[in-house]
Design a protein that fits this description.
451 residues, Rossmann fold, 11 helices, globular, alpha/beta
Length: 451
Amino acid sequence: MSNPSPWLGSDRDPIAGAKAAGRSDASERFEVSVILVRRSAAAFDEHVAQLHATAAAGGARLTRQQYAQQFGADPDHVASVRKFAASHGLTVSREHAERRTVVLSGTVAQFNAAFGIDLQRFQHPGGSYRGWSGPLHLPGDMHGIVESVLGLDNRRQAKPHFRVRPSAGAAAAASSSFTPLQLAALYGFPAGDGKGQSIALIELGGGFVAGDLSAYFGGLGVATPKVVAVGVDGASNAPTGEANGPDGEVMLDIEVAGAIAPAAGIAVYFGPNTDAGFLDAITTAIHDTANANSVISISWGGPESTWSKQALTSFDQAFREAAALGITVCVAAGDSGSSDGLSGDHVDFPASSPNVLACGGTNLHGSGSSISSETVWNDGAGGGATGGGISKSFPLPTWQKGLSATPIRRRATTSGSTGRTWSSAARARSLRCGPGCWRESMRSRASLRAS
């Protein structure tokens, strides 16, 4: 292989306030996901462009088999990664040509030598993580075939987007919130029970208990849906018993989807909360031939500015694959307002990707099938507010040309903005669990396609 050289765009900034606390243990073993560029990229771009142009007429989608054969990883590229791994003593743990992913296993010392870096332990107020400074190094003949290398840095990448409503008593909660069935009636959700479809839920922690689900759906008078857990990269369905932790998001996601589409299958993909684990869970759900998901729901994310350029690229490319396969990807827009929990204006990713349906939130008042009022959800810093804004990483897509957005802080209209503007859809975020639910009332997304 040719001599290694710096790979532009592969830098990863430390978490704000983090300080290096010494080198990582040289013998520590872990896995890294190498994402390859797709085969016949120009033909794929043309196919996606035609889909956009013919979406209203139901443009032809690819089957998973067709995608794998035409646009999966080039076998020669996979072979190059194998050769690269062998030259540094790394083990190829798994290969997924359809996902364009080769998973490598090795020690800190081996990965340091392979990518020309010095992995360190970083300490910050929220904990510690493994990371590095500066660019990765790759042999010259691999620069054009690798899209990203994820997993060297193992910081927690995302957080679940839900809020627990302050306790106000059962009567007050019932008068100010809705069950999923009530929301479906208010929004005129289409008739049907989802039979023949499969909904994928992406989770980065926590888990569910079958008995709790049965109690919840029984209280609603709805048949309990079939729910399967799919472990990715060593993660699994691991409930903590804490409703205010990730369990709350996992259970909430299942309950909303299952109440509205009880005959649909629900596959819950559990991945590690890292950029590699998050992406691997998404691409596993996209290319899963056993469950054959038609919808993917993601309720996790983080400020766009905290993601690496590599990760932004590979996540967005994965969502383009989903579009080519006819899979709708719905992503929560965040629940910390336009700042996304930082100072200034920040959008949340992956909701800021132009290839997903970003779902914001509203405060809704209504009864039966009649909505009396609906306004943007904003309960302040303590209670939460819907995310949204203008992406600084993704250009304005063609289907948003001509839109204007007004950043309130600057009092200036950004007509013809160069960044992707979102949320794409906004629906009620006030939801109560109903009889038999095991936790307090929570805020939720009702993810419906914008008209």
